[in-house]
Amino acid sequence: MIESLSDVSVSIVTFNNADIIKDRLTRLLTIFKNNQVADIFIVDNYSTDGTREILQKIAEDNSRLKLILLDSNKGFGFGHNQAIKK
Predict the structure, then answer these.
(1) What are the strands of the beta sheet with 39-44, ordered from one edge?
(2) Which residues of 36-58 are buried (b: 16+ CB within 10 A; e: fewer)?
């Protein structure tokens, strides 16, 4: 396990994953915390199935989680580019 915050940030792009996002993200956040990942960017590509609301709830308790909620779905690469800009 790493003992101080690293220079590593993580970017995850999601779209309409309400059925799996909470479980997957809960598992990943534990791994990221144990390895002192500095920032976790979650980019939502304009989900319409409740994914955004789930992400907002999870983000309330995780200060390293940075949400980027897009106003349209411009694709996977575009989503990652938004995180890179941050």
Answers:
(1) 9-14, 39-44, 65-69
(2) ebebbbbbbbebeeebbebbeeb
Domain boundaries, position 23: 9-85
pLDDT in tens, 19-49: 999 999 999 999 998 888 989 999 999 999 9
CA atoms of 69 and 40, how far apart (whole Å): 14
Q: Can you tell me which residue has the tokens 């800009």?
A: 85
3 domain residue, yes or no: no
Query: β-pairing, 9-14 with 65-69?
Result: unpaired
Residue 20 resides in a domain: yes
